[in-house]
Amino acid sequence: MPSVGVFVGVIVVVTILSKSHADRNVYPSAGVLFVHVLERDYFKGEFPPYLKAGDASNDPITFNTNLRGFPDRPGWLRYIQRTPHSDGVLYGSPTLEHIGKPTIIEITAYNKRTFETARHNLVINIMSTEEFPLPYQAEFYIKNMNVEEMLASEVLGDFLGAVKNVWQPERLNAINITSALDRGGRVPLPINDLKEGVYVMVGADVQFSSCLREVESPQNQLRCSQEMEPVISCDKKFRAQFNIDWCKISLVDITKVVPVHSIRPDPGTGVLPEIGEYNPPSESLRSRDYFADFLITLAVPSAVAMVLFVILGYSMCCRREGVEKRNMQTPDIQLVHHSSIQKSSKEIRSMSKNREISWPLSTLPVFHPVSGEVVAPIHPDSYEATSMPLMQTQTNLQNQVQIPQQQTSGKCIVLSDTRSLE
């Protein structure tokens, strides 16, 4: 199982296998992309034979990688495995801090069909290099690649070859590869074989070529701000295999970058410094008078509320005119109307209590329409009217008025008019 280090178009394979096939030693260089493939075929031989029917060569195998003695890997080392039927890949860019310190990675393989496990150790010995760091670094965003596809030695070699033709450096190294998902990108929809995209950083020892500088021109910057593709003369050298987003390319000259050093204070012992004895405040402090605060917060609002309450009570209770004063100022004819309405309402309410009684008797007007004199009704309020008909006959009525009748007797016409006067 080889470990791949990529230099200028040349793929160097450095792998040392121990006799027990349990430990592997690899020697990556600091600042150069490190790629190590966990091949499923290699770990299949560690599992006992599967006696049941089935194709043992297609067992689903997953890997778990961690730094020995810790639950996770070092910060510079990443791992990816797309499916249980594909190989796993460890990749990353070592730093100068780990030079000369062996990093032991525990690799555990799980066979999900037989539930067997196999464990190996990968010993990473990071070596220093005179080419680190390369002063000119460019980061490309490739839209039509996934990270595991870009990590393949053939694909990465083709990309570095295209960059070398455009840049023409003496030394060119792949520094790092990062998935677009690790930069905040979204998972693409599963249509038209869309890829998640990958960032590839390369470094060289010469100035950026004029082709790469074209992305910094005002015209291309304007096109990028309008979400249009910039016009790059060397894009055709990549377009056949790599779809590069030239608006996201990053060109960095680390020789012009001003390093920022944060000044940290010297850590102490964790014990507070000696500042002498604690001196509490003296007891001769002047006591504070809270009477003014009491007046402002309680007494004044209470007094205002009491005055408002007295004014409201006087307006509602002491300013009422009363029923007698109202009746004295009301005309008699209006009071008679009001009384008749009350009596009628009382009669209707009494009728509603018993639906089977007959209709109410007709009554004379309760007042004279001309003089306004109050006239007593025919029957008092307590009169039993349930047995009386709705309309009385004219013979039973007081103040009877007979309607003139026309009688015909031969040729003589007799008119009789009988009127009873009061």
Automatic annotation (TrEMBL):
The keyword Repeat does not apply. GO terms for cellular component: cytoskeleton; dendrite; Golgi apparatus; sarcoglycan complex; sarcolemma. It is a single-pass membrane protein. Keywords: Cell membrane, Cell projection, Cytoplasm, Cytoskeleton, Glycoprotein, Golgi apparatus, Membrane, Signal, Transmembrane, Transmembrane helix, Ubl conjugation. Pfam families: Sarcoglycan_2, Sarcoglycan_2_C. InterPro entries: Cadg, Sarcoglycan_alpha/epsilon, Sarcoglycan_C, Sarcoglycan_N. The chain crosses the membrane at residues 294-317. It is found in: Cell membrane, Sarcolemma; Cell projection, Dendrite; Cytoplasm, Cytoskeleton; Golgi apparatus. Residues 1-22 form the signal peptide. It comes from the Eukaryota. Residues 25-133 form the Dystroglycan-type cadherin-like domain. Component of the sarcoglycan complex, a subcomplex of the dystrophin-glycoprotein complex which forms a link between the F-actin cytoskeleton and the extracellular matrix. PANTHER family: ALPHA-/EPSILON-SARCOGLYCAN FAMILY MEMBER (PTHR10132), EPSILON-SARCOGLYCAN (PTHR10132:SF17). Belongs to the sarcoglycan alpha/epsilon family. This is Epsilon-sarcoglycan. It comes from Danionella cerebrum.
